[in-house]
Amino acid sequence: MTLFELAKKNVVRNLSRYALYVGTTIFSIVIYFTFATLKHSHEISALAETSKKISGLMSTSTFILMLFVALFIAYSNAFFLRGRKREVGLYSLLGVRKKQIGLLLLFENIVIGAVSLVIGIILGIFGANALLQLLMRLMDSDLNIGFAFSASAFIETFLVFLAIFLFTSFQGYRVIYRFKLIDLFHADKSGEGVPTAKGWVALTGILTIGVAYWLALQDLMTSSLWKTLGLAMPLLIIGLSVIGSALLFHSVLIFALTWLKGKEHWSWKRLNLLTTSQLLYRIRGNAKTLTLISIISATAITAGGAIFSVYYYAEENVASYTPYTYAWKGEAVEVNGATFESSVEQKTIRTEAQYGERELGVIDESTYRHLLQGLGVAEPAPFKQGEVVWVDPFYDERYSEDLESVELSGQTVDLSTRLEESPLNVMTFGGSFLVVANDMFKTMTEPSETYHVTLTESFKNQRDQSERLAGLGLESFSSAPDVYAETMAVNGALLFVGTFLGLVFLVATGSVIYFKTMTEAEDDRAKYTILQKIGISDRDVRRTVRQQILVVFLAPFALGILHATVALIAFSNLLSMNFTIPVLVWMGVYTTIYAVYYGITVRRFMTAVR
To answer: What's the confidence (pLDDT) of residue 248?
Structure first.
């Protein structure tokens, strides 16, 4: 039997061990091939300016994905190699030279890599087209794309993953030369010493995370720390979060488990003592992995939650910028399907402000109320005698400029009332304007300009008419269909990339925990056999297994959720938006997939130790 035939036999024999790794790798190849296809797709180029943004986004995404997958594959191979040290030692004992053992492992990795690459690219060819259609739906684009295949994407994906698999294969080949025979046979008996936690280190870990959260929740616009540190502030927050997470798993978790172990009423109940002892025994070896997973989870949840939130409120944001379907300056033109049309007389004044002169549009009260009626918006209470209302839909007390008074018709009037509900399109009228009484408007000597606004039942399917009106050369023309199309194109592409990168990160981190746990299962088989021989029930064994694996899964996931929650609160405060619903949906999806990994790991662990 040749080494290559033996390698194929080993792959088939260990198929169950490699199944999740191969599945995750194939999924990563499919996503990479999809991103590469979108980057090189001629069909996407039909989206004109949007294609440049998508192409740049996909190029960045493929690079990030390539780095992450390379690290994941290298990390996974290290786990597999550790689990097979005893087997490698047996080969050495039988007289097989290290060179031949290295070639055997090299061939095995090449076989696994080749199978993953072939299946991944085949699925990627068809999956890329399905995902391309999904992208078009997310972007709300009516672009009809047939079966898309990019030879450039095919070659790029093949070469990138071929290089990754060859690198990790030769890495395993080199590792064989660093093993000693005695170390190989006692690999399953070597373990971490029972760690001890110092109270001050645990307290430092909690305080470090607390400081990171406090800095993250500081107001970007008003905080003196943000003004002082500038772009260094995010790096400081990330650095403190990473350090705090590492200290949490190295000390805080150990401190908590040690305290729990010392509670006799709890530790002597069922197999609780065994559970805490097992966790303490390996906690030092798992700490780095748990820290890494918590940071990756936090990154994926934060990015995905923020992108999904912006996409979720995209239509609402468009309505706030362009409440009327069309608006322009000049003569009236015919708009098909209009449900409300109105002309707007606006005058412009110049007033002294904090940072120099500022232009403000002025309309009369009757026009303002008529525009609100057209939109079906509740009108404000009647204005007081001589009252001037300042309308600014984007006012933010943290950075917006306050106006206390303006000069109108030779007299200074106070701006004591400010409203945030605007019935005018920002791109045509500007974001801020004044509403004055009808009599005062007539006495103003500034020249007036005529604008027109039109409302239709739905602006989503008005692209053809929008192009027709834009072709007329209307001055200061604003179109809700155009704003919506551009917003959905950008946000849809971001959501597409964020979702699938997040899924790759999720399945990879779940797989890493799975590999780590299954490696420990190989070492624990003898211990659980002894427990069964002395009469411990299968129910109790399953219970302690579930508890141990739950800590390994839940600890980094819970910390990642906590990190992401603070980051998303800071982001929502910055944008003055409520992200609760979309973030909960995103976290729910993430939690569900994570729970599936937990269930699979428990099931496979029990099978391994029986």
So the answer is: 83
